[in-house]
Design a protein that fits this description.
- It contains 1 helix and 12 strands, in the order E-E-E-E-E-E-E-H-E-E-E-E-E.
- It is mainly β.
- The strands form 2 sheets. It has an 8-stranded antiparallel beta barrel. Strands 1-2 form a two-stranded antiparallel ribbon.
- Strand 3 and strand 4 form a beta hairpin.
- It is elongated.
Length: 192
């Protein structure tokens, strides 16, 4: 039997947004993706398949907190040889640094959009990251769970985390871009 209660939302600046509470990320309905350039022009996409975390939404949006832990060995770019190289000491070095973490909070929020600034720890290095975030909507799933959907994006320089491996190209440029775009889509379930 379907559950038909009203989703858990509140009005903020005239827009429905998720209610205050702990929203646990559902990894089965989330995508932590990244995009880099290969051979200067081609976009290559990857994602992390294993992670956990939550969004603690406060009554004051600026007091909210995002906390995520990523299993770096779960990287998947769609090519086994490339994934092995990503896991190697040249790049993520997962034997020494098996997890990455992100912890952040909004520094600007209006209605359903804002900026979350936090610290990403990767390869034992912690650096600031800024993400543009949107609270896309809240819905009750068929089993009665309240789900909030968030979308986020940002750009980082991989060298900031000591991920510097590269190869020069004969015609100029480098094999792999320094700039990496982050593309994140998340469903989170309200803890009861």
């Amino acid at each position: 039997m379907a559950h038909t209660s009203t989703p858990t939302v509140r009005l903020l600046d005239g827009v429905d947004v998720p209610a205050a509470g702990r929203w646990r990320i559902d990894p089965g309905h989330a995508d932590l993706g990244f995009v880099g350039r290969h051979l200067v022009f081609n976009k290559v996409r990857g994602r992390f398949r294993s992670f956990e975390g939550h969004v603690d939404i406060a009554s004051d949006p600026l007091q909210s907190v995002v906390d995520v832990t990523i299993d770096v060995a779960s990287v998947d770019s769609g090519d086994a040889a490339r994934d092995d190289h990503l896991r190697s000491g040249d790049l993520f070095d997962v034997e020494r640094f098996p997890t990455a973490t992100f912890r952040g909070r909004p520094n600007r929020w209006s209605g359903s959009t804002g900026t979350v600034v936090g610290e990403l720890t990767l390869k034992g290095v912690t650096r600031p990251v800024e993400l543009e975030v949107a609270a896309v909507g809240v819905v009750t799933d068929p089993w009665g769970g309240e789900r909030a959907v968030f979308s986020a994006s940002g750009t980082v320089n991989r060298h900031d985390w000591g991920i510097t491996w590269n190869m020069p190209l004969a015609g100029g440029g480098l094999l792999v871009s320094r700039e990496i775009n982050l593309e994140i889509e998340v469903e989170a379930v309200l803890d009861r």
